[in-house]
Amino acid sequence: MSEPQLLTRGKLASRGGVNIATIRYYEKRGLLPDAPRSRSGYRLYTDDALRRLHFIRQSQVLGFSLNEVGELLSLRMQAGTTCADIRQRARRKIETVDGKIKDLQRIKRALTKLADACQGAGPTSECPILESLEGARNTQ
Predict the structure, then answer these.
(1) Which of 2, 6, 96, 103 is the most core-located residue (most Cβ within 10 A)?
(2) Is the pLDDT of residue 3 over 70?
(3) Confidence class for position 125, pLDDT limits 50, 70, 90
(4) Whole-model pTM?
(5) What is the DSSP letter of 119?
(6) How far apart are CA 78 and CA 87, in angstroms?
């Protein structure tokens, strides 16, 4: 069996598709464990750190916040956690995404209505979009 390959912070960042500051930030947040230092002072990361970095990045792509990523990582390491626990987290994220989609659809309808009401001509003082936005402020 071969010895695990050790990566400097720069190489870890490069292979993980992030910058070095992101690695430091993830360490500060406890998402990546601090790596031991070499004699020359460089932090040396194992392939486990790269796998964890990929896990973090993929979780973010799926819409999980860094707090939620931390929870998933904790659950992964916690004895007694089952796939059902993780599925429950995923279903809650789906509900959040559904809510955001509804909000975005509402915003799109409102913007479409405003854009359709504007002829695209005349001074901005008579622009129905700007007038509507100003009226919205006055009604709140």
Answers:
(1) 6
(2) no
(3) confident
(4) 0.77
(5) -
(6) 15
